[in-house]
Amino acid sequence: MSMDSLLLSFRLALCVSAILLVLAMPLAYWLAYSSWRGKFLVESIVALPLVLPPTVLGFYALIAMGPRGPLGKLWIALFGHGLAFTFTGLVIASILYSFPFAVQPLIASFESVDQRLLHASAILGAGKLRTFRRVILPLSLPGVITALVLSFAHTLGEFGVVLMVGGNLAGVTRTVSIDIYDRVQSLEYGAANRMAIILLVISFGVLAAVYAINRRVWTPWTAK
Amino acid sequence: MDREVNLPSLAADIRKERRGAHGSTFTLDVSFEASPGITILFGPSGSGKSTLLDCLAGFLQPDDGRIAVNGAILFDSGNRVELPPQKRNIAYVFQSLALFPHLTVGQNVEYGLQQLPAPDRQKRAAEILEAFRVGKLKDRKPGEISGGEQQRIALARSLVTRPRILLLDEPLTGLDAALKSSIIEDLRVWNAANRIPILYVTHSR
User: Fold this and answer.
1) Is the CB of residue B114 less than 8 Å away from at least one CB of chain A?
2) Domain span at A81
3) Which terminus of chain B has fewer Cβ atoms in its 10 Å neighbourhood, N or C?
4) Mean local confidence (pLDDT), A79-91
């Protein structure tokens, strides 16, 4: 019963964090190394979900995904059905909402790679892709893990965006945070408590893992 | 010079304006030729030694000038020629050495040999590590070995690619005199067998 919404939330968070990592990697690379002057504009857009109320983001996502919105129209033309109030729609809105949580740790760790290591790689004949794969990525591993885990945890706990875009369809868009809200509204405090505790414990575990990783992983190859 | 006319020699003519930290500017303006063997460039810190080396390696673009190795042009502002660092076939040992901290010594040395098949790569790496007397350290990480050993490995890593010139940016600072001269001796021996110009930049006599 209440496991349905918990599993749905996990499925959503897994999809979102996996897709986000793929999308955020090239963007973070560009933001970390580009010398374009207008870069701050892109940085601001990426950070917007941090300060916008989820309802605002959810509202515009809903409009865009609706049958008259650009994304909704495209989706209907391609697949024959709309996006709003579907799991896919939820994934897209959640990606937007969690974007800064994936991009910012990646930027920070890409930027902290010593520039001379990139020079060394270049003068030894390695192109940009090889330098990224063999030098930047392995040295940014803590940032990659942080990005993955934070976007997962952030998606797991979202409420406003889901409510706006997904509504409240059992098994399709009723995530655990919405289920908790429902239970409280109908005075089922016991059920609400069970789900809330699970979410609380998972969130704590995830954050503890991130902090532990960021303390340890740097040490094996720096001077003792 | 006449004797070694068909050996690599470096001809550089570089002008580059740089902005200092406090809004000051200074212009690097150098013109020199270096033939096979060690050439020492001496200058106090802030005189643009690293800027010069970065221009030669292709990390910085000179405002104006020409860089050629044995007639092959690496940079020419007049003809808008600018080879990227990857294509210059130059070896550069940085002051910080810049060994890859997450790779073993062997992987560091093999890094520039990606185009070779694995057995050749390992053979070349083993040879050069032996020439600089650090063959035993192949499986260690840079963080686990001494400063002098790191210097030898940085030299081995850059020379294993058979470069046309070698740039050294004060790589031996912080080493005691005996260790320093022993490393320079190994470099001399290597250079006797591989006649390329070595540009050694330093501010200590």
Assistant:
1) yes
2) 2-103+144-217
3) C
4) 86
